[in-house]
C-alpha cells in the first residue's frame, strides 16, 4: 500500500493557522481510505490545534518536531532530545541584535523535542506582524542567510528554513529525512511546501530521491489549496 506523507504548515494549513473546514472534512475521508502520515516541525499540541483531533487520530502517525517526537493514537511512542550549546545560544542571540528588522515580539528561541526553533520576529507575533516579517524576508532572504552562516560555523547541527518566519535547528541526521527508515519497502507520495534546498522539507525529499524507488512520488506545493487540487486531480 502506498504511504501518503504530508507536511502541515503551508501544505495542509496556512502557516500556523487552522485547516480549512471543507478541506478538513474531505481530508478525513481521504485519510480513512489511505495510509496517511503527517511530518512537521511543530510539536504535537500545535498540530492537534491546527488540523484537529479527528485527523490526528485517523492518520497512521504524526511525526512531530521533524520526526523527533512521534505520535500514534494520541500517545508519544518515540522521542529525541536537543540541547543547544552555549556557543550556539550566544551566536543566535547575536543574530537577533544584528538583524535590521525593527520588531521583536519575544519567544525567539523555542526548544522542542529534537530541535530548536529560532525566529527573529519571535513566536509571539500576531498575524499582521508575521505578514510584515514575511515580506521583509522575501526581500532580504534573512532566514536563508542566517541558516547558511550557522551551518558554516557549526558542523554537528543544521539550520533549515521552516514555516514563514523561523528556522529549525536539529542535530545532523535528525531532520525530516530520518522518517524514511519507517518506509523501507513502501512507495511514498510526499507533499511539502519547503522542498527547495535549505527548506525543512528538503531532507526528506533528498532521502526519497537518493533511495531511487520507482514508486516514490514528490509533490512540491505552494499552499493547502494546491495540495487539495493535486489530490483531486490524481483521483484521490
Secondary structure: elements and pairs:
Layout (H helix, E strand, L loop, with lengths): L2 E4 L14 H13 L1 E5 L4 H8 L1 H6 L2 E4 L4 E4 L2 E5 L6 H13 L10 E4 L2 E5 L7 H14 L1 H12 L3 E6 L3 E6 L16 E5 L9 H10 L5 E4 L3 H10 L3
Parallel strand pairs: 1-2, 1-10, 2-3, 10-11
Antiparallel strand pairs: 3-4, 4-5, 6-7, 7-9, 8-9
Give the key terms.
236 residues, globular, 22% strand, alpha/beta, seven-stranded mixed beta sheet, 36% helix, 8 helices, four-stranded antiparallel beta sheet
Concise synopsis of the structure shown:
This protein is about 35% helix and about 20% strand. It has 8 helices and 11 strands.
Textual characterization of the structure:
- The chain is an alpha/beta fold and 236 residues long.
- The chain contains eight helices and eleven strands.
- The strands form two sheets. The chain has a seven-stranded mixed sheet, sandwiched between helices. Strands 6-7-9-8 form a four-stranded antiparallel sheet.
- β6 and β7 form a beta hairpin.
- 43% of the residues are buried.
- The mean pLDDT is 93.
Instruction: Please state the overall shape, judged from the principal axes of the Cα atoms.
Output: globular
Query: Helix coverage percent of residues?
Result: 25-40%
What's the arrangement of strands in the largest beta sheet? 5-4-3-2-1-10-11
Mean pLDDT: 93
The low-confidence parts are none
- The count of helical stretches stands at 8
Radius of gyration, in Å, reads: 17 Å
Strand content: 15-25%
Main sheet attributes: strand count, strand direction, barrel closure: 7 strands, mixed
| Terminal residue distance | 14 Å
Number of E strands: 11
Structural class call reads alpha/beta
The secondary-structure element order is EHEHHEEEHEEHHEEEHEH
Amino acid at each position: 500500500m502506498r504511504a501518503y506523507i504530508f507536511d502541515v504548515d503551508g501544505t495542509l494549513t496556512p502557516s500556523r493557522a487552522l485547516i480549512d473546514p471543507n478541506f478538513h472534512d474531505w481530508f478525513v475521508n481521504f485519510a480513512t481510505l489511505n495510509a496517511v502520515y503527517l511530518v512537521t516541525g511543530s510539536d504535537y499540541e500545535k498540530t492537534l490545534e491546527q488540523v484537529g483531533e479527528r485527523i490526528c487520530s485517523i492518520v497512521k502517525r504524526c511525526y512531530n518536531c521533524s520526526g523527533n517526537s512521534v505520535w500514534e493514537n494520541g500517545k508519544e511512542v518515540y522521542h529525541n532530545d536537543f540541547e543547544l550549546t552555549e556557543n550556539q545560544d550566544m551566536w543566535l542571540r547575536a543574530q537577533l541584535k544584528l538583524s535590521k528588522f525593527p520588531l521583536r515580539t519575544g519567544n525567539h528561541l523555542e526548544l522542542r523535542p529534537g530541535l530548536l526553533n529560532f525566529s527573529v520576529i519571535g513566536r509571539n507575533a500576531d498575524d499582521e506582524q508575521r505578514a510584515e516579517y514575511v515580506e521583509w524576508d522575501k526581500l532580504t532572504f534573512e532566514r536563508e542567510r542566517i541558516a547558511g552562516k550557522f551551518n558554516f560555523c557549526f558542523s554537528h547541527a543544521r539550520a533549515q528554513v521552516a514555516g514563514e518566519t523561523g528556522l529549525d535547528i536539529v542535530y545532523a541526521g535528525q531532520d525530516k529525512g530520518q522518517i524514511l527508515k519507517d518506509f523501507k519497502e513502501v512507495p511514498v507520495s510526499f507533499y511539502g511546501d519547503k522542498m527547495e534546498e535549505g527548506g525543512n522539507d528538503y531532507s526528506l525529499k533528498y532521502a526519497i530521491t537518493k533511495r531511487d524507488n520507482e514508486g516514490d512520488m514528490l509533490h512540491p506545493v505552494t499552499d493547502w489549496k494546491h495540495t487539495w487540487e493535486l489530490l483531486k486531480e490524481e483521483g484521490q
